[in-house]
Amino acid sequence: MSDDTDASAGSDAERSALARTLETRLGQKLVKLDETRGEITIEVLPENWLAVAVTLRDDPDLRFEQAMDLCGVDYLSWGQSEWDTTDVSSQGFSRGVEGAGPGRFDWAHRPRDENIPHRFGVVLHLLSVSNNQRVRMRAHCADDDLPLLPSLIGIWPSVDWFEREAFDLFGIVFDGHPDLRRILTDYGFVGHPFRKDFPLIGNVEVRYDPEKRRVVYEPIASVEPRVLVPRTIRDDSRYVQVDAERKVGAK
Description:
By secondary structure, the protein is of the alpha/beta class. It has four helices and nine strands. The strands form three sheets. It has a five-stranded mixed beta sheet. A two-stranded parallel sheet has the order 6-7. A two-stranded antiparallel sheet has the order 8-9. The longest helix is centred in the N-terminal third of the chain and has 24 residues, at 3-26. It is globular.
């Protein structure tokens, strides 16, 4: 048996042990723990964001010393498909749905999902070098109008630019960050481009004015609105039928 197979065989047991340790150490601070696809995701309330982070770093049985990534998420229109993969024929290109995906709704008629009471979330990926383990931590911001979480820069300095990126693209504010400003867009940029209700053509366009000898911002005039939705098949009825036929044939 190869070393890779041995490592894989032991990983499930280690992962379950990690899940039990997390449940024991975090207790009531843990909203949910999920082990889907062999990955552990824990969800906490925003008021416990800092306390849980300290526990994950300092507990001798956890020791998540490195923050590998941090990102924002906009759950507006979460779970709504732009393609119909179950109730249409398998031929042709008429499977596009005039849905409520990004760029296809206005704020007054925005889609709502009762299963996701808060729109914005922050996801943190941690690595324990000491224990060779990973965990994902998530929290939903309590206020949709002013999404806010405490900054983790005092616990893991590596989140500095990650938090700035989430602020720039999603408008999530990280309280206590020493230098929270835009990092990818320009200083005069209007809005947050990764929000689902952000216009796909933007709010303003930029061009160089030879007479003024500088870059100027103007209302959108030369760009035609359009929606380019990549086709992503999640649950295709054709594959479900093929799978059923194979099972019947196997009998």
